[in-house]
Design goal:
- With 210 residues, the protein is an alpha/beta fold.
- Helix 3 packs across helix 4, helix 6 packs across helix 8 and helix 6 crosses helix 9.
- The two termini are 20 Å apart.
């Protein structure tokens, strides 16, 4: 029986597939021309494809372990065999469809953003589960005075902090907190995580998922 459980768990770990779509990227290229960052050069198709090769190597190093650890510490199961991650020249990252931008000088930061969005993915894939709803009801009630963005990022950032410290470094964690501080909701969320302790928040979160 134990072997069957291990076999099942192994195949529930998804594969992240990095993909370039010319049509999708072209839409962002056009939007970039109208944005306040229009003077910043938009990466070419060749540059994006070369960048994908770089991040594929970085992700291959610990990616499967990270996906397994996310499922393990949250008690949430991955529901999709493959997760497509579209890579475009310039965009604000988001989780569905999973879409990330090129960070030329900081490919490791791309990985950090990817993990952030994958935690969102894990939450969404379990959104309809009764026990998952129970834990989100708890989060929404406990932090009712905070914005929705802050509330949803409290457990996310706690889980991400765990991943930073287990697989990367405190220096990299501090970079993430610093670089995201220009967004008030995210800054507030990180402040709560640091004040209450990421382990305490994770324990409260998973105690309702059994």
């Amino acid at each position: 029986m134990l072997k069957n459980v291990i076999f099942y768990m192994y195949f529930m770990i998804p594969k992240v597939v990095f993909r370039y779509s010319w049509y999708y990227d072209e839409k962002y290229r056009e939007l970039h021309k109208l944005s306040k960052w229009k003077n910043k050069k938009y990466p070419s198709e060749k540059q994006i494809l070369n960048y994908i090769k770089i991040i594929e190597k970085l992700w291959k190093k610990d990616g499967k372990k990270i996906l397994n650890e996310l499922s393990k510490i949250t008690r949430l199961q991955w529901k999709e065999k493959n997760i497509i991650c579209y890579v475009v020249g310039r965009c604000a990252p988001f989780s569905d469809p999973l879409t990330l931008s090129v960070y030329e000088k900081y490919p490791d930061y791309f990985i950090d953003i990817l993990i952030h969005e994958l935690i969102h993915q894990l939450f969404m894939q379990n959104w309809g589960d009764k026990k998952s709803r129970m834990t989100w009801n708890y989060i929404n009630k406990k932090y009712k005075n905070e914005s929705f963005k802050t509330r949803i990022h409290i457990p996310l950032h706690a889980i991400h902090m765990y991943i930073f410290l287990k697989f990367f470094s405190e220096t990299r964690l501090k970079r993430e907190i610093k670089w995201i501080s220009f967004l008030p909701d995210y800054k507030k969320s990180w402040e709560i995580v640091q004040k209450e302790g990421y382990k305490n928040i994770i324990n409260e979160f998973v105690s309702r998922i059994k």
